[in-house]
Amino acid sequence: MLLQGKTAVVYGGGGSVGGAIARAFGRNGAAVHLAGRTEATLQSVADDIAGAGGTAYVDVVDALDEAAVDGHMKRVVERGGRLDVSVNVISDQDVQGTPMVEMDVEDYLRPVATAVRSKFLTARAAARVMVPQQGGVILFFGGQFDWTVARKLSVGGIGVTFDAVESMRRQLAGELGRHGIRVITLHTGGLPETIPLGYDGRDEIVELLNGNALAGRAATLQDVGEIAVFAASDLARTVSGASINMSAGAAVD
Q1: Whose C-alpha in 11, 43, 74, 210 is 20 to 30 A from the C-alpha of 125?
Q2: In this structure, what is the dihedral angle of CA atoms 41, 45, 47, 51, given to the nearest 10 degrees?
Q3: Are 213 and 247 in contact (CB under 8 A)?
Q4: What whole-number distance in Å separates Cα of residue 224 and Cα of residue 227?
Q5: Residue 251 domain flag
Q6: Does the predicted model carry a pTM greater than 0.90?
Q7: Cα separation of 74 and 171, whole Å?
Q8: How far apart are CA 232 and CA 3, in angstroms?
Q9: Half-sphere exposure of 218 (CA within 13 A, CB side)
Q10: What is the pLDDT of residues 114-124, one digit of tens each?
């Protein structure tokens, strides 16, 4: 078990991506603290982790609320004594489906503001625990956005969101590296499983994501969980300030 004895927080842990990461963490021995706004979905993931013999806690937390984030981090440390891994996947799949020039400014900026604020607050809370420990891992999700998809798919503000978060990742890695804290992005190139059934244009999006992959298929949620485990583990101790490319060749470095 690569994460045996470690404590992890997953913000957005009740969603498809957050849930996949949380379940993989649990399978690999981490005590997982699931944070989000919907208790029922968080509890469902926690039940899966517990059913597989793992440890999970559920906390209803608004990651846009500064006091709520800081208060929750205090509870996490009280439970486990430390924090080893912090993952935030909030507002990472919000493809809005409207051409940019047809959008209201508030709608365009919504995913940008949501992701940047929540990731700042959660990363800051994590770093304030990890710095005295002289170690820890902060994981983001998304990677550098492939703007060529805008020819076929109206993405709204999500592309700018990804690029803004990547800038934050680089800054955090630079500031926190001397304290033994690693900051990494998981870059998938898009996940067909996260496109809701019945979503207008779903088939076209899935075909696009799979077609862009050199391997002929895009990454799966299981892939995301397993790579997240590796990134959070000591096996990846030399990886920081980087984006781990798990796009199946959709993004060629």
Answers
A1: 43
A2: 160
A3: yes
A4: 5
A5: no
A6: yes
A7: 24
A8: 8
A9: 21
A10: 999 999 999 99
